[in-house]
């Protein structure tokens, strides 16, 4: 039976999906070359020969790269083979507060990009795609980034996570009232951006602790002056123990990285460290109920977690089930524009 001819617009959309990596890698190349940060690019048009000289690039190849990106609104191509950053392109400058240059650099890097080429095998075998990319690294993507040869990729990823907290997930610190806690610990808190935002929004929080992997702590930038002496970083592995005792523990986009079994290990270790009256505030996405049609950002992040680290985005019921397995009870869920604040406390003993 002859297949029905696909409508032209549908075919166009499919081809656009098939070539999406062209855009991703072109953006990454422009960011890595430093084109957006070349002298004059912030507010004027710059001839291609000057851009090539600044980036030590082949002039013809660089022109063709920027001409391609101009189609998507990153640059404006002007007469005389000159290019000017658009308002959208400004977001990719290293000094732009959005920090999207780190998204371009990180998502297109080898450790984030190549595993997706193994997604078909991962779906067949129920594994992460990363296992086929690096079969000798049981710690997966995070172990890969911690290797000495991948330090730049790890640093870029941590800057990306800081950017998400600063710009994409702005306002989540107001989903829960932290004013009643004197000390807050961010478990897996990277460079401390979320903790700083909590302390700025809730002056009652006097001290902060970031519990992180040694490889991350070793790269932490100097904290702003107002936080010196108020925030400290503690090295550790939350799969082994969480030797931190505070009033309130925070996690953001940590549990979605891991399978239910691995999450139970993390949460069990956390519960063992909690003093009476301590609470957990878990910031994560809520997946819509099964069978909910249409676009939802959690669906894309879920497939990324499945590909990279074996985690998942969870529905409200799945969060109740997961935390319950580790001896926690959810007392409230506050939904924000991008994430929810899930407040949980240790369940009373039976």
Give the key terms.
single chain, 7-stranded mixed β-sheet, globular, 15 helices, Arc Repressor Mutant, subunit A, 3-stranded antiparallel β-sheet
Q: How would you sum up this structure, described in words?
A:
The chain has 350 residues and is an alpha/beta fold. It folds into 2 domains: 85 residues, Winged helix-like DNA-binding domain superfamily/Winged helix DNA-binding domain (Arc Repressor Mutant, subunit A); 188 residues, Rossmann fold (3-Layer(aba) Sandwich). The chain has 15 helices and 10 strands. It has a 7-stranded mixed beta sheet with strand order 6-5-4-7-8-10-9, with helices on both faces. α2 packs across α4 and α5 crosses α10. The longest helix has 18 residues. The protein starts with 7 loop residues before the first helix and ends with a strand. The mean pLDDT is 93.
